[in-house]
Amino acid sequence: MAKATITFEDINVTVSAPAGTRIIEISEKVGSGITYGCREGDCGTCIMKVTEGWNNLTEPSVLEDKVLRENMAGKHNRLACQAQVLGGVIKVRPV
Amino acid sequence: MVKPPLLVHDGVAQAVALSGRVHWIGALDPHLRTFDIILKTANGTSYNAYLVRGSTGVAIIDTVKESFAADFFARLETVARYDEISVIVLNHLEPDHTGALPELMRRAPQARLYISQKAQTMVKALLKQDDLAFTPVLTGDSVSLGDRTLQFLHTPYLHWPDTQCTYLPEEHTLFSGDVFGCHFCDSRLFNDQVGDFRFSFEYYYAHIMRPFKDYVNRALDLIEPLLPLEKIAPAHGPLLRDRPQRYVKRYRELSQAALQNENHDGEKTLLIFYISSYGNTQRMAEAIYEGAMVIEQVRVSLYDLEGSELEPFVDLIEGADGIVFGTPTINGDAVKPVWDLLSSLAVINLKSKLGGVFGSYGWSGEAVRMVEDRLRGLKLRVPVPGLRIKLIPTEEEIALCHDFGRELAQELVGQRQSKVIDMADLA
């Protein structure tokens, strides 16, 4: 199975994870500062900045785009509870 | 002595002239004592709104809280007709400045609304009108009233994402929104006539603007080139026509560190706060302190929370690069002085500071994880997992504390090794 390496820049930890894994499944276990609210793509609490490997994540759904807009998210921001890794190198940090 | 302005004549609220073309059409709320839950005021506040008359149109800048709309409209009507209004500017969307907007737009349907770029997503939610038409503006945008011009300054996060200032260059007057404002109510309106409002000015800055110091400095970079201003017309409190530049200067002072620390170039600061009931968490704190001091270029300080009021620590934390908390677990929780300090930090910017937590416990030891979660919620980085030790630390455990301190200090100066983990190894 394809693997991705995702780096949480705030804590300087890199995790190797299989394709399809959501960021939420990893970030809490390693203690990254990305915080969560509803955990289902509705509240916008877990907005994170993708600093590298934007295209190595699944594309945001229409609903995720809507939540990002409503929360005035910046460029290259995603919801950590929704974004799934596809492969390659990805770097993220809390906003 | 200059005669104070006449706010009411024959029972009718009157507009007050700042110049031949600019009028105050706001409202006084002398009985308010608590604003927005968090702010106290000893004599109420004012909701300042303004009217600017140009040769081809009239602009209204901000409105008032809804329950004071009658005063606002009465004052407006003493200096303009509704069909003359071509422009409505909202410097800030909070309800105390937009309460009269729906009615104003009903009375002046031809007027165009100007709001900041960042206000766009908020304005519909706030006003509950889907068909609202507006023009979003940024620094460099302006609107003409003929022989008067309104220029917009993009000054976000002072203190909401949407905030902006509006400048009237022909009169060197800045309509500053909540910036340079305060909750102080005095019918004499102008800073050279009202009672002593200095404490209100400072208090307002400390509670409303301080968390956004970086944004204050950026806004001042836009405002200072406009000096010398003739008048600053804020959305609350006295209108600043006597030496307004003093207030701009004071904002700059307040947005910089009061007394620079003694650090050498490039040196990082790490503050360790602890509280201890039997001396065990204190033993841990001392070992962490020693461990951190091994790393050059890190200035480490150790504080017992029992030995001070909390307020000075808030100032220290604001200027620090890293903060570490030591707390025992009592009845399944961190202890109150630690929570009290953590709940005092909302007035400062903590984003991206380094955080760490440690503590001794008797049987369950929840406090460390709880405080770690709180630090993440406050947007600190918590890269070194918290250290929990059961009851009295052994020599081996003291060595762990030493390592914990060293690792935190290494992280501060970028010397800590990055970790690579396989997901299968994560619990």
Shape descriptor of chain A reads globular
CATH class of the largest domain in chain B: Alpha Beta
Identify the quaternary structure here. heterodimer
The most extensive interface between chains reads: A-B, 22 and 23 residues
Describe the sheet with the most strands of chain A: 5 strands, mixed
Number of strands of chain A: 5
Unreliable parts of chain A:
none
Count of individual domains of chain B = 2
CATH topology of the largest domain in chain B: Metallo-beta-lactamase, Chain A
Using only C-alpha atoms, the radius of gyration of chain A works out to: 12 Å
- Helix share bin of chain A: 10-25%
Percent of residues in β-strands of chain B: 15-25%
What is the makeup of the main sheet of chain B? 7 strands, mixed
Strands of chain B, count: 24
| Strand order within the widest beta sheet of chain A | 2-1-5-3-4
Question: What's the gist of this structure?
Answer:
Chain A is an alpha+beta fold. Chain A contains 2 helices and 5 strands, in the order ββαβαββ.
How would you describe what is shown here?
The complex is a heterodimer of chains A (95) and B (427). The radius of gyration of chain A is 12 Å and the shape is globular. The longest helix of chain A has 9 residues, at 62-70. Helix content of chain A is 18%, strand content 29%. Chain A has a single domain (3-94), classed as Beta-grasp domain (Ubiquitin-like (UB roll)), CATH 3.10.20. In chain A, strands 2-1-5-3-4 form a five-stranded mixed β-sheet, with helices on one face. Chain A has 95 residues and is an alpha+beta fold. In chain B, the strands form six sheets. A seven-stranded mixed β-sheet of chain B has the order 3-4-9-10-11-12-13, with helices on one face. A five-stranded mixed β-sheet of chain B has the order 14-15-16-17-18. Chain B has a five-stranded parallel β-sheet with strand order 20-19-21-22-23, with helices on both faces. Chain B folds into two domains: 8-254, Ribonuclease Z/Hydroxyacylglutathione hydrolase-like (Metallo-beta-lactamase, Chain A, 4-Layer Sandwich); 268-412, Rossmann fold. Chain B is elongated. Chain B is an alpha/beta fold. The longest helix of chain B has 18 residues, at 395-412. In chain B, a hairpin with a 2-residue loop joins strand 1 (8-9) and strand 2. Chain B has helices spanning 69-79, 95-98, 101-107, 120-127, 198-209, 213-223, 245-254, 280-293, 311-319, 336-342, 367-377, 395-412, and strands spanning 8-9, 12-13, 16-17, 22-24, 27-29, 34-35, 39-40, 45-47, 50-53, 58-61, 85-89, 112-116, 135-137, 142-144, 149-154, 164-168, 173-177, 231-234, 268-274, 298-304, 322-326, 354-361, 387-390, 419-422. Chain B contains twelve helices and 24 strands. The chains are: A alpha+beta (95), B alpha/beta (427). The interface between A and B is medium-sized, with 22 and 23 residues. Strand 2 of chain A pairs parallel with strand 24 (419-422) of chain B.
